[in-house]
Amino acid sequence: MNTATATAPIAFRAATAADVAAIVALVESAYRGDASRQGWTTEADMLEGQRTDPQGVAELIGRSGLGCRVLLGESEAGLLACAHVEAVPGEGGAKAGYFGMFSVRPQLQGGGVGRAMLGEAERIAREEWGCAEMQMTVISIRDELIAWYERRGYRRTGKYKPFPYGDERFGIPKRDDLRFELLVKPL
After folding, report:
1. In 104-175, alpha helices (H)
2. pLDDT in tens, 76-131
3. Which of 118, 156, 174, 177 has the most CB within a 10 Å radius?
4. pTM (2 decimals)?
5. Is-contact 41 84, C-beta < 8 A?
6. Which residues contact 18 (CB under 8 A, 6 or more apart)?
7. How far apart are CA 140 and CA 121, in angstroms?
8. Which domains does the chain have, with CATH numbers?
9. From CA 26, how far away is CA 102, in angstroms rounded?
10. How many alpha carbons fall within 13 Å on the CB side of residue 74?
């Protein structure tokens, strides 16, 4: 890992349409194929095919404004990380933040970039949008990833959503036991 890059100050900003290609490349490198094996967040043993596509990222960026943002973390070395943050309905009518499409350059994973991105996303949801909690869905067999979130205050809810088998926009499963679990954290 290039620790100089990993520890350099991170600047946060909202993505624009000009960032779509870089975001797609980052997300794919963090989750799919051999490049993703440089980091610990790879899904290469569970899924092949794409993790996202330009159209999906462009649609998220197009919804930017109040309550939706594709957040970028950058340094002088370029794009380090990204995440989708959105205000959504929470339990009992309270507003919640949703955190997804979280990606960190594989060679920088474990260096604090992800923790900084998650903290900024939580700050946005809490301070800018008035959200009471942050929600996310994680593939339920991703034990190491779920443990990382638990160390940051998230809890497993036992609420599951089915994996979209047959919809190659989300990848081509290599296993038949994939599903998403909802994780939550009070803000």
Report:
1. 113-123, 143-151
2. 999 999 999 999 988 777 899 999 999 999 999 999 999 999 999 999 999 999 99
3. 118
4. 0.90
5. no
6. none
7. 22
8. 3-186 (3.40.630.30)
9. 10
10. 13
